[in-house]
Specification:
By secondary structure, the chain is of the alpha/beta class. The chain contains six helices and ten strands. It folds into two domains: 2-73, no CATH class; 88-237, Metalloproteases ("zincins"), catalytic domain (Zincin-like), CATH 3.30.2010.10. The strands form three sheets. A four-stranded mixed sheet has the order 4-5-7-6, with helices on one face. The chain starts with a helix and ends in a 10-residue tail after the last helix.
């Protein structure tokens, strides 16, 4: 099936230079299109997908895909931080300065009196991993407390919510109903974190990104277009763990 779908997509008038691939995902019920952080387009299709229907759906979305790929090509380089005193880190939209503190077995990364304290690591890579783990732990607690009200608004219940490193994805919805969010999203203000959570919750009702999915999003977030625009402006500046 993947070869057949691959062939019909290859026959479409895709812009020169596009990198793309077809992923067959047996649990999917409809076409899904993802653009990775580095600009590769992934067409996720069910195992029994009709190649001609996939081709028609992809053709319809080509202008929007082309615009998104152009936008990502123009995005600034991924942020890189130096783990020295005074470096700025965001959490839920607020800025905190880094303060290295002496290493101690009892000390962990924490917010303390307006500072983000980092027990001095052996190297910058270890420091970055510790800060990412702090975002993961704090973000999980925040998201799990936030989910019940969002689930009520969407009208669906998730199995759980996890904060993790999702590589080039900001959110994901697992087949068992578990929602996952990239730890870097926790740098954003709560309304934009809500946007990611609601997006994935709506996928529990609508697996694709078509008109039915957009209706679900607007029913929950009347200002979804404005939030998505702001998210698109903010997400290139999110720190993903790169250090000097």
């Amino acid at each position: 099936m993947s070869t057949t779908v691959h062939q019909v997509i290859a026959e479409l008038p895709l812009p020169q230079g596009w990198r793309w691939r077809v992923d067959v995902r047996p649990r999917r019920r409809s076409l899904g299109i993802e653009i990775t952080h580095d600009g590769e387009v992934r067409f996720a299709v069910p195992a029994d997908a009709d190649p001609l229907a996939v081709a028609a759906a992809v053709r319809k979305r080509l202008p929007r895909l082309a615009e998104e790929i152009r936008r990502r090509a123009d995005r600034p380089a991924e942020p890189v931080k130096e783990l020295v005193g005074g470096t700025s880190f965001a959490y839920l939209g607020r800025r905190y300065r880094l303060r290295p503190v002496p290493a101690d077995p009892e000390r962990r990364v924490r917010l303390h009196r307006g500072w983000l304290e980092l027990p001095e690591p052996c190297d910058s890579g270890e420091g970055a991993r510790r800060i990412a783990a702090w975002y993961t732990e704090c973000g999980r607690d925040w998201a799990r407390a936030r989910m019940p009200s969002l689930e009520l608004r969407v009208g669906v219940a998730s199995n759980d919510v996890e904060i993790a490193d999702l590589a080039d994805r900001w959110g994901a919805c697992g087949p068992n109903g578990t929602i996952a969010v990239h730890w870097a999203v926790m740098q954003l203000p709560p309304p934009l974190v809500d946007l990611v959570l609601v997006h994935e919750l709506c996928h529990l009702r609508q697996p694709g990104h078509g008109p039915a999915f957009r209706r679900e999003m607007r029913l929950v977030l009347s200002d979804v277009d404005q939030r998505e625009k702001r998210f698109a402006e903010e997400e290139p500046r999110l720190w993903r763990g790169r250090v000097k």
